[in-house]
């Protein structure tokens, strides 16, 4: 179990509550040793509803191309949800 009170950024803070520079590295740790997440910058691509699943096939090959074009080394992107059937998409 992760102690969320112990999770803290390891760098990028100025110590006075100042702004965190957007392009600086980010490390999230739990306690002194367990590394949870390490990013080379703080830009995160949020999930977007692209609705590009054809024939109810989740994440076809073009989705891998789409996200690889937007990925950066050491970055974080969160992919969209996919419809798993014609009646389970959340849209009419």
From TrEMBL:
GO biological process, one term: jasmonic acid biosynthetic process
Keyword terms of this UniProt record: Fatty acid biosynthesis, Fatty acid metabolism, Flavoprotein, FMN, Lipid biosynthesis, Lipid metabolism, NADP, Oxidoreductase, Oxylipin biosynthesis
GO MF annotations, alphabetized: FMN binding; oxidoreductase activity
Keyword Flavoprotein attached: yes
Domain NADH:flavin oxidoreductase/NADH oxidase N-terminal: 38-91
CC cofactor: FMN
Pfam families linked to this entry: Oxidored_FMN (PF00724)
Family: Belongs to the NADH:flavin oxidoreductase/NADH oxidase family.
UniProt name for this protein: NADH:flavin oxidoreductase/NADH oxidase N-terminal domain-containing protein
